[in-house]
C-alpha cells in the first residue's frame, strides 16, 4: 500500500473534490490519498464523496484554525 498527498489549499469547493476524484483513479487498490485542504465546505463534501464512491475514510482531522486533512483509501 502506498500513500499519496494531494494539496488543495486555497481552492474552494468543488475543486478539492474534483481534484480528489481525478487523483484517486490513478491509484492502485489499497493505496491511500491524503487530501490537505482549507475549504470549510469540503469538511462535508469530501467525506460524502468518499462514502458515495465506496472509499473508506481512514483518517480525518483538523490540523489548524482553518485547515484539515482527510485520508481516503481506494477500495
Describe the secondary structure blueprint for this structure.
Blueprint: E1 3-7, H1 15-24, E2 32-37, H2 42-52, E3 57-64, E4 67-73
Parallel strand pairs: 1-2
Antiparallel strand pairs: 2-4, 3-4
Describe this entry's structure for a reader.
With 75 residues, the chain is an alpha+beta fold. It has a single domain, classed as Translation Initiation Factor IF3 (2-Layer Sandwich), CATH 3.30.110. Helix content is 28%, strand content 35%. It has two helices and four strands. It has helices at residues 15-24, 42-52, and strands at 3-7, 32-37, 57-64, 67-73. A four-stranded mixed beta sheet has the order 1-2-4-3, with helices on one face. The longest helix has 11 residues, at 42-52. The relative contact order is 0.26.
Features:
75 residues, Translation Initiation Factor IF3, globular, 4-stranded mixed beta sheet
CATH class: Alpha Beta
Distance between the termini: 11 Å
Largest sheet: 4 strands, mixed
Unreliable sequence segments: none
Report helical residue fraction: 25-40%
Q: Which superfamily, in CATH terms, is the homologous superfamily?
A: TusA-like domain
The CATH architecture category equals 2-Layer Sandwich
Which descriptor suits the 3D outline? Answer: globular
The rounded Rg comes to 11 Å
> What name does the CATH topology carry?
Translation Initiation Factor IF3
Number of helices: 2
Strand line-up of the largest beta sheet: 1-2-4-3
Q: Per DSSP, what share of the residues sits in E-state strands of 2 or more residues?
A: 25-35%
Indicate the structural class. Answer: alpha+beta
For the secondary structure, the number of strands is 4
Total domain units = 1
Order of helices and strands: EHEHEE
Report mean pLDDT, rounded to a whole number: 97
